[in-house]
């Protein structure tokens, strides 16, 4: 078992080196006083190297087919996160020209051959594959999604400090890393939500699967399709929450320019997601070599979600939308 832990540590170190490479590309991209042509050449070469590093990381996962299940699971999550980060960097730092038909005649031919294909569907595949990256917020309010934006895609959220983050869209997978003292209210996810290295946060989540790693002193108001899984985490509390209740809270938080509250309950029903408050309260702790007592607690205190958001905002570390004023 000690070998498994050492292998996971090596995977995380390898993962960190790839993340640092991707971050260095952003520093090059936003550097001042550099010739644009030289900057573009450096970024393009760096993205190519990033693909090579990603392939090397993926190859390292399959060097031993007899690796423990825990190691394979951690490696798969890290790989998916790197794929998401690199795809986002490619789109933001070296975007492709927007797709367009060269002529209406070509579009007419496609419609004739595929009468069942609606015009908007020609871009659906590209839209679904898009990822949304939010990073580096401090004392900010971020609202993403809505009106079809980011629908069915992946979200990566990282390095948020004292922020309020609202994702109105129904996503596929969501990765949230290295956040502190922030509130997250996310639309239902058809896949998994992965939370790593977060401290003193509140998450309002609805998803098929919830996985939490190295997270501490954090509360979850959740409804899930399977039992949440935690690893190497402490001081977590889980509270039951319904999609309709979250819709109501958002209705009071969103400003006119941010749009109205999304119809999450209708989306959940349309997608056939089976979410259960009881599942969300049955947490599975997969931490190795530690007494699991005190790592998490299921709390059914009957507190309204709006009040819970308010308590985790001004009373603890600052503002949360329109629910309170800053208290230092």
From TrEMBL:
It comes from the Eukaryota. Gene3D superfamilies: 2.160.20.70. Signal peptide: none annotated. The keyword Chaperone applies. The keyword Chaperone applies. GO terms for biological process: post-chaperonin tubulin folding pathway; tubulin complex assembly. GO terms for cellular component: cytoplasm. Residues 126-272 form the C-CAP/cofactor C-like domain. Keywords: Chaperone. PROSITE patterns: C_CAP_COFACTOR_C. InterPro entries: C-CAP_CF_C-like, CAP/MinC_C, CARP_motif, TBCC, Tubulin-bd_cofactor_C_dom. Belongs to the TBCC family. This is Tubulin-specific chaperone C.
């Amino acid at each position: 078992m000690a070998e498994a832990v050492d292998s996971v540590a090596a995977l995380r170190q390898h993962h960190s080196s790839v993340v640092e490479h991707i971050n260095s590309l952003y520093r090059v991209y936003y550097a001042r006083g550099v010739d644009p042509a030289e900057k573009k050449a450096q970024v393009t070469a760096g993205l190519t190297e990033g693909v090579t590093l990603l392939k090397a990381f993926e190859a390292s996962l399959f060097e031993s087919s007899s690796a423990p299940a825990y190691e394979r699971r951690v490696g798969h999550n890290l790989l998916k996160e790197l794929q998401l980060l690199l795809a986002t960097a490619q789109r933001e730092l070296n975007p492709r020209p927007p797709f367009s038909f060269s002529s209406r005649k070509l579009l007419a031919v496609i419609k004739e051959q595929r009468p069942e294909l609606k015009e908007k569907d020609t871009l659906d595949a590209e839209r679904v594959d898009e990822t949304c990256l939010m990073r580096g917020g401090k004392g900010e309010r971020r609202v993403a999604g809505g009106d079809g934006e980011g629908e069915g895609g992946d979200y990566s959220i990282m390095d948020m400090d004292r922020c309020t983050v609202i994702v109105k869209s129904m996503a596929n997978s969501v990765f949230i890393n290295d956040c502190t003292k922030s509130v997250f209210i996310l639309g239902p996810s058809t896949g998994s939500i992965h939370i790593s290295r977060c401290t003193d946060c509140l998450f309002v989540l609805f998803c098929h699967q919830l996985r939490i790693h190295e997270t501490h002193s954090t509360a979850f108001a959740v409804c899930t399709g399977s039992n949440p899984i935690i690893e190497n985490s402490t001081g977590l509390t889980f509270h039951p929450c319904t999609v309709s209740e979250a819709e109501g809270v958002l209705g009071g938080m969103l400003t006119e320019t941010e749009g109205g509250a999304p119809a999450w309950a209708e989306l959940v029903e349309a997608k056939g997601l089976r979410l259960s408050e009881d599942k969300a309260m049955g947490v599975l702790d997969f931490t190795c070599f530690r007494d699991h007592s005190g790592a998490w607690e299921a709390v059914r205190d009957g507190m309204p979600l709006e009040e819970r958001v308010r308590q985790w905002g001004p009373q603890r570390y600052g503002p949360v939308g329109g629910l309170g004023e800053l208290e230092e």
